[in-house]
Amino acid sequence: MSYTHKATGRFTVSAWSEELVSDVDGTGKDSGGVYYPDRGISQARVGYHCSGEVEGTSDVVYLLGYRGGDDLVLGLERFTGTVAGHEGSFVLRHEARHGAGAVTGTLSVVPGMGTGDLATLTGEAELRIEGHSEDGYELVLHYDLG
For residue 142, what are the β-bridge partners? Predict the structure, then answer.
């Protein structure tokens, strides 16, 4: 779908907490007190901060489907802040894959869950994260209002 407007920002992780839901094989690794199954499901609660034309904070709940390197990432994120000066909140649906040091996927605005100036927001963003960055990752939201 094509959208009329575009807003960019950079996001950083402000919090990450992950716990095992199900372990398929009973094999995996422990890192920093968190167990990561070779194959299984984990739940992560994550906080983000975004600056730029997309400015604000968000909380996400992810379900992570570990399957040996081509892992599934599904989530719902509630963002509160501004998009190009329009204030309010909205929810994004995450559908992505994680493997070989990169995350790729799509973030889609969930209709009917916005507030304030963003109540009628529709849109999406492509997600591409490679490696680790101290100054965050680019977010480009293509959107329409109303």
Answer: 6, 124
Cβ contact 27:45 at 8 Å: no
Q: What is the pTM of this model?
A: 0.93
Instruction: Supply the pLDDT for residue 146.
Output: 85
Q: Answer whether 44's CB lies under 8 Å from 16's CB.
A: yes
- The dihedral through the CA atoms of 97, 102, 105, 111 has a sign that is positive
Name beta bridge partners: 31. Answer: 34
CA dist 109 and 143 (Å) reads 9
Q: What is the DSSP letter of 113?
A: -
Please give the Cα distance from 116 to 56 (Å, whole number): 14
pLDDT tens for each residue of 96-144: 999 988 999 999 999 999 999 999 999 999 999 998 888 999 999 999 9
